[in-house]
Write a structure and sequence with these properties.
The complex is a heterodimer. Chain A is mostly helical. Chain A contains 13 helices and no strands. In chain A, 37% of the residues are buried. The model of chain A has no long low-confidence stretch (mean pLDDT 90). Chain B is an all-alpha fold. In chain B, helix 2 packs antiparallel against helix 6. The longest helix of chain B is centred in the N-terminal third of the chain and has 22 residues. The radius of gyration of chain B is 22 Å and the shape is globular. The termini of chain B are far apart. The C terminus of chain B is likely disordered. The chains are: A mainly alpha, B mainly alpha. Chains A and B meet through helix 1 and helix 2 of A and helix 11 and helix 13 of B.
Chain lengths: 269, 284
Amino acid sequence: MADLGNLPPVQRRRWPVLLPLATVWVIALVPPALWLVHRGDPELAVRLALAGSTWTTRTLLALALLAAAALLLFPPAAAGVRLAAARTRRLLASDRGPLQRALADLQHFESAARHLDAGRAAWLLDDGARALVHLRRAIELDPALPAAHHQLGLVLLRTGHAAPARQAFAAAERLDPGHAFGDALLHQGRAAFRLGQHADAVELLRTHERRHGGGRRSQLWLGDALAAAGDRAAARAAWSAAAAPGRLTAEENWCRALARVRPWFGGRA
Amino acid sequence: MKSLWEHADEIPVTLVILIACWTLALVTGLMQPDAERLAAYGWLTAMQVADGEPWRLVGYAFLHGGIVHIAFNTSMLAAAGPALERSLGSLRFAALFLGSAVGGGIAVCLLRQPFEPVVGASGALFGLLGAAVALFLRSGPHALSFLHFEGPRALLAMLAANLVIGWLLPFVSNTAHIGGLVVGFVLTLLYLSPPRRPSPWLGAWRLAGAALAASLCFASLLPVTRHEWLWNRSVDSGDAARAAQLRRAAAMAWLRQPTASEADVERFYRTIVEPDDAEPDSPR
């Protein structure tokens, strides 16, 4: 079971907000700054404006060229854009109602199931810190709730805390073998891979494949684990299975696109 | 129209705007407006705003260029205004209309030709449409839930169609439309209809938005890198050295090069200021 006392804090990434905010401030500061320069030297103000306009154009052109080069040199970039768009759409289209209802319910009566609902809803709205609080409380109230362990593992793995995530997935799998159609086992394998425990990862992912069948993501992750464990031939076979064409969701398509180019990069995940 | 009559007592601002538009249309000439009167009553050109007439940033939104223009705009206002005014409240609606008009005007000042006149409420009306989209984003269980309904989808389609029409017709200022649309959307999202559970970043975004708006207003009133403005300031300047500096800066801005010789200034004068005049002693 995950060590609930020492779970790391999960914080929202600040740069997706800070970067556009800083850009707005920089743009807002340009006209007054140019006016101040103009008061002393009007020619310098014009020179600065011309240079700024030239460099802005050049930067935009360079970014366009970089994007084109990225698409040529790293074909999964297009699949990555599709995945990012799908995630943004999911974030915008995630219903705020379940979180509000769960929080309102919790004010009347506290239960593990309600904390789980709140944690799950918060995570869907990309609020990892809030999700962690509720999932921890759900497990404190009912340590035998596999869904809470599974959800906690997902939050921790996505936020880069592989060790407690692996413990959480293991607890979910122990409490309910095959939990969430094998998703807990699959992510346990991925967490083991992230921790550098490659043999364990191969074992867990093979078990998952045997019991639940393989998908694009599980095949890609199995290939990564096999390559890291030194079995290049098996890794290529797994990647090849993951790279087969088909109509896929954005996430599966991302895994398929990555699997297609894995052998180019010597199997580095 | 039906809602205009049914809720006339609840929508004073919409009615005032409608009356103001039609009154000014009658004064300036309903069928064929008189250009001199339009200029006197507040048409918008970037240079007039920069020459100390900032009220034109609002005034142009109440003037129209003919009966078709005013009929189209006021029918759109009559359709969208009542619902929005009742939803936001009269004071906020007034702030939205005027703010969107200023936003459209600033976009025209910064991006269009400096002597090109603009009239019409369409920039402000696009602001109302932007505000409606912002309210839709806030209203449902999630941000995109309004797309499940036919009304909001039709509004988005109308918005897109109007933007396309604006691009196709040369006498329509799509710059004002887009400026008004962006300002109406942002104004409603950040200030007029904030979320019930505000995020910790809302205050920072409000501050940044206000700073950007103030800065763009400043750039419209003092376009220190526009060659027309620089030349006019050189004419007004009593200091000969300063005037020479401003003329060189004007020539640099026109030529888009980092230096300007006396020959460049002369060329600028002959080409832009007084193409028919031989001596550079009496600029425009």
